[in-house]
Structures are given as structure tokens and as C-alpha cells.
Amino acid sequence: MQLLLLCTKSGTAVVCLTSVCSKLCTMNSTTSCRSRPAHCLPAPTPRRWQALGCVLALAAPGWAGAQATGPVPDIQACVQQLVIQSEYRSASVTDLYARCERQRSSDAVRTDTSSITDDPGSSAVVVPATDLTRFFRPYKDNYIVFGRARTADGSPPFSGEQLDTKFELGLTFNLFQEITNLTFMSPLAFGYSQRSWWDISEDSQPFAEHNYNPEVFWRFDQPSRPLAGKFPFIDIIGIEHQSNGLPGAGSRSWDRAYVQREFDLLPSLSVDVKLWNVLGAEDTNSDIKDYLGSGEVTFKFSPNDRTQLRLKLLKGDAVEKYSYQLDISYRRPWVNSAFFISYYEGYGEALISYNQKTRSLRAGLYFPLEVLSR
Asked: Among the residues of 180-251, which ranges form H helices?
């Protein structure tokens, strides 16, 4: 690979990334370029950028020799695109090549993972590679809804007796995904999600409850990765902690080890099964398994590309009826969110009232966080 850079006082500099056998492309103010390769790109016309280009080319003499075999076409095209962009005027050719190599590696990693999706509730959200999404991706649910809650025994609910706001945020992070020598660790991920209830109907508008849910998990749905894809009936295996962060009698927390698997029953219908074993629980909620059981099943139905219905079911060991949550989301192209309605009935919507049967109806917006992919 040769880097051909002409710098003349009267002509226009031309940057060519061509093979050794490519002809020299010469262009000045009075003559046209003869035998000019189609992928020769005119460099910025001001003379100071021509001079800077010559200096940068001389500053990286080893680059052409190190790439004697020639980069793959996508890297070559990437460098050609970057070299004419104003934000990379001060970058050397070596820096541009390294940036394109990192971008190609990141794209390859995401090609190996699940397909792009922004379905509400999906725990396998993958978005296109950017500087931000190399670190964080949307995870679980991200929404804000407004509504009311009621208890089965008629007592005041912990939040939403008149009107409250409930929101949830979730992100996941792959610690070793961009480290070449540790690619075998790329299925290891950390996730964090949080649900909060904001009692906006009260005078002081206090936050009534927060449920914090950090976790670490290993993905087995990446067949091209070592140590992944060897368990056909498991997508994820992990350990999670959930608590409300309160001290004393109001404290609620439990730790679980879990396995998770999603099955596609029809093109528009899937079922997600999550089973867990309780590793430990706070003394104030030591009987939480009696109300929330040892697993949950989620059905997702998408009749079209704008609408999704989701039904989540779970049953405690000591209660007769199932707890369930029904969500309906509807997307429109003119807004970067989905209209969202959520109905909950049963136990465990919030940790603070895990043993109190409640029902709630709320509506608002679901956020697929597509801004992260821009």
C-alpha cells in the first residue's frame, strides 16, 4: 500500500489510497487528472491544509510499510471518508487507520450478537455501534407513566392514592467487549435497572419508593463466541440483587440466581421464561417467595411493527391467584417513543408492598432510547 500525496503551490492536493500498481494522480489548476483512480479523493483546498497533509504523511512513514498487504476495503473506504472531514483535519493517517480498525472491530462484535430491537421489555436490546453504545445499551424497560393504585383491602396504597408517576430506567454494560485479548469474556455483562414511584399528588411531592436492581450475567445466545452458545435452552444465567435502599423496618431486599430463555412460538409471538432461586432475603421480607414465587413467564405479541402486547405472569408459593401485568405499547414514526399503558394486579409491583395485593392503571410513554444509536 502506498500513500500518494501531491503538494504543489498552484495545484490542488489529492490524497490517494491505492495499490502499488495504481498510477500517480496529478492535478493542477490548469490540467485535469490523467488516469485518476476512481477512489482518489481531493483533499481540502486551502494551502495550509495541503501543507499540513504533507507533514502528516511524512510523520507516519511506517504506516504504508506496515500495511503492505493492504487493508480490507471497508477500512480503506472509512479512511477515505474521514480524511476529508473537517473534524479530522489534525489527525494523522495512522490515527485515522486505527480509528477505522476499532470501528470495524466494534461492528463485527455487534454483528455476532442479537438482531436490533427496541421491543418493550426486551433484555437483549442491541443497537448500532457508536462511541457511547460500546459501553452502554438500553436494558429491560425505560418508560414514564402516570396513574393511580388501589389495594384489595381498601387501605391507602404506598403511592398513587390520587395520582402518582412511575418510571423505570435500565442500562447494560459489557466490561470486556472491546478488549482484543479478552474477547472470550465478552458474554459477561453488568446490568442496572431502577423503578421509582413519585407521589406527585402530595403537597411536598415526595418519592414514595425506589427499587434498585443491579445484576451480573453471562449470555449464552452468541454462537460465534467462545464459552457462549453451548447451552441451547439458556439465553442468560446471572445473579441479581434487588432492594429499596431503606433502613430499619422499611427495608426490603433479596438476592437471586436465575436462568432465562426466550422462545419464538410464532413470527409475532414469543414467550420469555425466567426461573430463579432465592439466595437470601432481608428479615423484613423473609417470606417474599410466598408472594413472588420462583419464576415468571412473559408473553409478547406484536400484531404489526408499531404495536406490542405483553403479559407477565408470576405466582407465589402461598397464594392462590397469579399476579400479572399487562402492557400495551403503540409507536408512531413522528415521535421517538411509544404510547404506553400498563395495568398491574397482584403482589410485588413494589418491594415495599410485596405482601399486599394491589392493582394499578397507568399510562405514559415508553422510551426505546434510540438516541443512543445516533
From this structure: none
Q: pLDDT-based confidence at 73, cuts 50/70/90? A: low
DSSP E strands, 155-294? 164-174, 188-198, 207-219, 236-243, 253-266, 269-281
Residue type (1 letter), 177: Q
Q: In sequence order, what DSSP letters do the residues of 91-128 get, joined into one string?
A: --HHHHHHHHHHHHHHHHHHHHSPPP---TT-S-----
Nearest CA to 278 out of 303, 249, 255, 248 is that of: 255
| CA proximity to 108, closest of 1, 174, 183, 182 | 183
* pTM > 0.85: yes or no: no
Give the least confident one: 15-24, 170-179, 191-200, 260-269. 15-24
Domains and CATH numbers, the chain: 2-110 (no CATH), 136-373 (2.40.230.10)
* Percent of the chain predicted with pLDDT > 70: 66
The two beta strands, 207-219 and 236-243, are antiparallel
Q: Return the ∠ at Cα 331 (arms to 269 and 144), rounded to 5°.
A: 100
Identify which of 211, 221, 167 has the alpha carbon closest to the alpha carbon of residue 189.
Answer: 221
Rounded to whole angstroms, the Cα distance separating 89 from 51 reads: 12
Q: How far apart are CA 256 and CA 84, in angstroms?
A: 53
d(CA 4, CA 19): 10
The sign of the CA dihedral 8, 14, 20, 24 is: negative
Torsion angles phi and psi, residue 316, rounded to 5 = -75, 160
3-class DSSP assignment, residue 332: coil
All three cell numbers of 353, joined, read 408492598
How far is it, in rounded angstroms, from Cα 57 to Cα 5?
8
